[in-house]
Amino acid sequence: MDSTELYRKVLLSISGNRLVEKLSLKYGKKLAGKFIAGDTLAEALAEIEVLNGKGILVTLDHLGEGIKQLSEATGYKEEYIRLMDGIAERNVRSNVSLKPTQMGLALDPAACYSNIRAVVSQAKKHGNFVRIDMEDTPFTQATIEIVLKLHEEGLTNVGTVIQAYLFRTEEDVKRLMEAKVNLRLVKGAYKESGTVAYQQVSEVIDNYKKIIRMHLDSGVYTAIASHDDRVIHWVKDYAAKNGIGKDAFEFQMLYGLRMTDQEKLAKEGYNIRCYMPYGTMWYPYYTRRLAEKPANLWMVVKNMFK
Q1: pLDDT tens digits for range 121-176
Q2: Core-most of 39, 153, 225, 261, by most CB within 10 Å?
Q3: Is 133 labeled as catalytic in the residue annotation?
Q4: Catalytic site residue from 8, 131, 184, 273
Q5: How far, in Å, CA of 96 to CA of 235, rounded?
Q6: What contacts 190, CB < 8 A, 6 or more positions away?
């Protein structure tokens, strides 16, 4: 296990500690603001306009996951419907991302499907798109089945996320490509065991490139979500050498990270989409961002003393 992977595992373990969470919630909101567009939809929509003005597309995420009551899922569903309406009214260039556990997957899969279907249907009315985020492995299969079922019902304006560090990923990509599902391809940000996921960074990178190549070659629109320059440069070179146009894929990066580079990609003519979260349930998202690499934590530590 290399140092970066060790760092990620340690930080994800620490972040699950109740005392660490309590202290972070008390003192960390200002620091988390680096990665969060605001508490309210109005704040998020205003920030989307700013990014659109720089040529950057957005996927908007209303923060929340791991709910304890189905009534919470209903609230999230209603917020996402308002969100879809708000995007249309402001005429901003943004789609949305949501988490299935936020919609009740761990509590009632049927209710979860109904909630997600309502959001996707509203998005279709506005000619917009919904990305169902991928969470940790207990929910992988169910998430894929939700997306495929929606496609079978004619709601094809929905896609999901595939994580390169899982052993099952290549087969999942093949199945989803057959259904022409729009995928966001990522390395993976959850703590997973060696029984289901690659543990070495080099193995994850190799598998990541493999699934990117598969998807680009298929002709299905591809979203490559990465801050890794090795991956970004490789995608640019592969697309150029194989006659794959810039309109066939997009890069995605996180709000608050490498914003200058996001503008640069837009100026180079690439589609670049910023994953922009908003809301008050920021702790789980924030800790995953810090766990991705030591540089993110160092950036936050430096900001503490400004």
Answers
A1: 999 999 999 999 999 999 999 999 999 999 999 999 999 999 999 999 999 999 99
A2: 225
A3: yes
A4: 184
A5: 24
A6: 12, 135, 136, 137, 163, 288
Whether 184 is a known active-site residue: answer: yes
182 within a domain of the structure (yes/no): yes
Catalytic residue, chosen from 8, 133, 172, 273, is: 133
- Rounded to whole angstroms, what are the CA distances from 21 to 4, 39, 242? 22, 19, 47
C-beta of residue 211 within 8 angstroms of C-beta of residue 249: no
User: Which pLDDT tens digit goes with each residue over 294-304?
Assistant: 555 544 444 44
Binding residues for FAD: 134, 163, 187-189, 226-227
The reply to whether 75 falls in a domain is yes
Among 120, 101, 121, residue whose Cα is nearest residue 111: 101
Flag whether 8 is in a domain. no
With vertex at residue 112, the alpha carbon angle to CA 107 and CA 118, rounded to the nearest 5 degrees, is 155
Quote the mean pLDDT of the chain. 86
CATH at residue 49: 3.20.20.220
Does residue 305 sit within a domain? no
Query: Which residues, listed in sequence order, are joined to residue 98 by a DSSP beta bridge?
Result: 132
Binding residue ranges: 99, 134, 163, 187-189, 226-227, 288-289
Domain that holds residue 194: 36-281
Work out how many domains the chain is built from and give that number. Answer: 1
